[in-house]
Design brief:
Layout (H helix, E strand, L loop, with lengths): L2 E3 L6 E3 L1 E4 L17 H13 L4 E3 L8 H10 L7 E6 L14 H15 L4 E6 L8 H13 L3 E7 L3 H13 L7 E5 L11 H8 L2 E5 L22 H4 L1 H7 L2 H17 L3 H10 L6 E4 L4 H8 L8 H11 L8 H8 L3
Parallel strand pairs: 3-4, 3-10, 4-5, 5-6, 6-7, 7-8, 8-9, 9-10
Antiparallel strand pairs: 1-2
């Protein structure tokens, strides 16, 4: 397993980050597509044995069940794990049981610590920006928790480019803890982060962690154009997501990926992840698995060396028709942006 620096910090994390969103059979948005605790522990064991030292979860996953499973597994090996969790979304019925206020962040971190059975979180990430709360308030809350030793590093997820840069500026101005990483959606069929987010991370020394690098499984090799999603698959359960992904341009990427994978004698999932890991500025990709077979295909991406011509073919097949204004305008004049 390879390891990369997290932004400009001294923290080194595995290029493969094990996502725990599927851990636990709980009601909610993962109902019917989660893994029971025994399977979750087997996935954790296999990943750890392969060299994965980076685990990502969130309080909202299984309404806390994912954190509890990770915490029980992690207890005898705590000092060898980089533990990441997140908070921001609704965790109760009260008006302050969500968001990025000082009150909710404090309560969310304390609750995560209890579920995880640990006294510190290596990387705490705010799960999405909160336009109702001044960024200075959020950063102050995180800074206090860092000073208390309950958080070592901080990050953000699902931020716009302007909010990320605003946050970095506010942290510098107020001498507060700054975000060390950004977690954002990025894959062969979702390259929007390359407009602002990935360039901003590279420019300001912020780590970039890609979530959903297999596009909810669309790039796993199990889905085919004009055919229903396989029974028991995530996209069979997530019908709205399947409708959103069922587009001509995305199927062209799926088919190009399958052809390239066949040439290399590997799986679509392995190649899709290896393509992501080859993107300049990317730190780690979050994989989610419900079976050991899925996990093994994902872990293989770390060792796959993709020939430049294959990367170029996948880049071309997945390139958006338009990047939008002002990117296309700038490119017309300067040839780049």
């Amino acid at each position: 397993m390879k390891y990369r620096q997290m932004g400009r910090t001294g923290l080194r994390v595995s290029t493969i980050c094990l996502g725990a969103m599927t851990f636990g059979e709980a009601p909610g948005f993962m109902a019917g597509v989660g893994a029971d605790e025994d399977t979750s522990r087997a996935i954790l064991d296999r990943s750890f044995d392969a060299g994965v030292n980076f685990i990502d979860t969130a309080d909202v996953y299984g309404n806390g069940l994912s954190e509890e499973i990770v915490g029980r597994w992690m207890k005898p090996r705590r000092d060898r794990i980089v533990l990441a969790t997140k908070g921001r979304f609704t965790m109760g019925s009260g008006p302050n049981d969500m968001g990025l206020s000082k009150l909710h962040i404090k309560q969310a971190v304390e609750a995560s610590l209890r579920r995880l059975g640990t006294d510190y979180i290596d990387l705490y990430q705010v799960h999405m920006q909160d336009a109702r709360t001044p960024i200075e308030e959020t950063l102050d809350a995180l800074d206090r928790l860092v000073k208390e030793g309950k958080i070592l590093y901080t990050g953000c997820s699902n931020y716009t480019g302007y909010r990320l840069v605003e946050s970095l500026w506010a942290a510098e101005r107020n001498h507060a803890t700054r975000y060390d990483c950004l977690q954002a959606q990025h894959s062969l069929v979702s390259r929007d982060a390359e407009r602002e987010l990935l360039p901003a991370c590279k420019a300001f020394g912020v780590g970039f962690i890609a979530w959903s690098p297999l596009a909810s499984g669309l790039l796993s090799g199990k889905y085919r154009r004009d055919m229903p999603a396989p029974d028991g698959s995530r996209l069979a359960a997530w019908k709205d997501t399947m409708k959103r992904l069922d587009r001509e341009g995305k199927w062209k990427v799926v088919e190009a990926l399958a052809a390239c994978a066949a040439e290399l004698g590997t799986s679509s999932a392995t190649l899709a992840l290896a393509w992501s890991l080859a993107r300049p500025g990317l730190t780690s990709v979050i994989i989610g698995a419900r079976t050991l077979e899925q996990l093994d295909a994902n872990l293989a991406a770390d060792a796959l060396v993709v020939p430049p011509e294959i990367l170029a073919r996948l880049d071309e097949a997945s390139k958006p028709d338009e990047w939008g204004y002002p990117y296309d305008f700038i490119a017309q004049v300067d040839g780049r942006w």
